[in-house]
TrEMBL record:
Protein name: LysR family cyn operon transcriptional activator
Cellular component per GO, a single term: cytosol
Organism: Nocardia globerula
Domain of life where this protein originates: Bacteria
Keywords: DNA-binding, Transcription, Transcription regulation
Taxonomic path: Bacteria, Bacillati, Actinomycetota, Actinomycetes, Mycobacteriales
């Protein structure tokens, strides 16, 4: 068994696709498939179910991913410790982020890669906020981009900015004319595509609507944000999105919701000393969001 095989196992588990996993670990798809097949042969178990809809873990695969993650985490901790002897120019940073965060996060990562090309980045976007905090608490990841208004008390946070919610409407759907803003009551009457009941994001959405004296009209429940955007474009219904979203599907229109629902977003990590590369990443993120706020304030004058 080799470390690269474990990286392939985790990549396929996280991306649900051999093609996407191969791109994530910088291998060709045949090379990644061979690594997984070799691992299955060594363990004498089937790790993935393969179907037209994608790739999912078998019970054996689910059982093995946890120790595989722990092994990779231990290795990366060793690499980070060694890297700390050499400053920021080496090592790895493990970043976890919400699936709905948009442009600013990608820009921070791009700027960091340009400034510190020798530092490896591993990025994951779990389904829920609780998974984000669990991955930081366990040490599996170093730092998170998260909504920090409800951050548990045993984490260190650094506020980056404030996010507002907006509505995305399907092409040709103008139930309220050409208004650029909608009230919460108006949004509540739209057929919405929302996360499933019980999902943390859904519970937060339900609380917001309840605070404004209305309830949601959940026409479709869907946990995957990317496919939700596809359904909005196809005319299935409207959805809620962070106002910072960078890629609005063709024909889809964004409407601000008033009064604005503001949520603080920021960086989250475990208390204590951070590796130099993580400290540098934090500083760059704070700098980038400060410049972003300045640019927006100037454009709104």
């Amino acid at each position: 068994m080799e470390i690269q095989q474990l990286r392939c196992l985790i990549a396929v588990a996280e991306h649900g696709s051999f093609t996407k996993a191969a791109a994530a670990v910088h291998l060709t798809q045949p090379s990644l498939s061979h690594a997984v097949a070799k691992l299955e042969s060594e363990f004498r178990v089937k790790l993935f179910y393969r179907s037209a809809r994608g790739v999912t873990l078998t019970p054996a695969g689910k059982l093995l991913t946890k120790p595989a993650r722990q092994a990779l985490s231990a290795l990366e901790n060793i690499e980070s410790t060694v890297a700390s002897l050499h400053g920021v120019t080496a090592g790895a940073i493990r970043i976890v982020t919400s699936r709905t965060f948009a442009t600013p996060i990608a820009e921070v990562i791009s700027a960091f890669r340009e400034r510190y090309p020798e530092v490896r980045l591993r990025i994951n976007s779990p389904q829920s906020e609780s998974d984000i905090y669990a991955s930081i608490s366990s040490g599996e990841y170093d730092i998170a981009f998260a909504r920090i208004d409800r951050t548990p008390p045993d984490f260190a946070t650094q506020i980056l900015g404030v996010e507002t919610l907006a509505a995305l409407l399907p092409p040709g759907n103008e139930p309220y004319g050409n208004h650029t803003e909608l009230t919460w009551a108006q949004v509540s009457r739209l057929p919405l595509i929302l996360p499933p009941a019980g999902n943390q994001a859904r519970m937060a959405i339900d609380r917001v609507f309840a605070a404004h004296g209305v309830s949601v009209n959940a026409a479709v429940e869907n946990e995957d944000y990317a496919s939700t955007l596809d359904m909005v474009r196809a005319g299935v219904g409207a959805c809620l999105t962070p106002g910072t979203i960078s890629r609005i599907p063709a024909g889809v229109r964004m409407k601000a919701i008033v009064p604005a629902q503001r949520t603080r977003i920021g960086l989250v990590h475990r208390p204590g000393q951070l590796a130099p590369a993580v400290v540098a990443f934090n500083a760059l993120a704070v700098e980038h969001f400060r410049e972003l706020r300045t640019t927006r304030a100037t454009s709104e004058r």
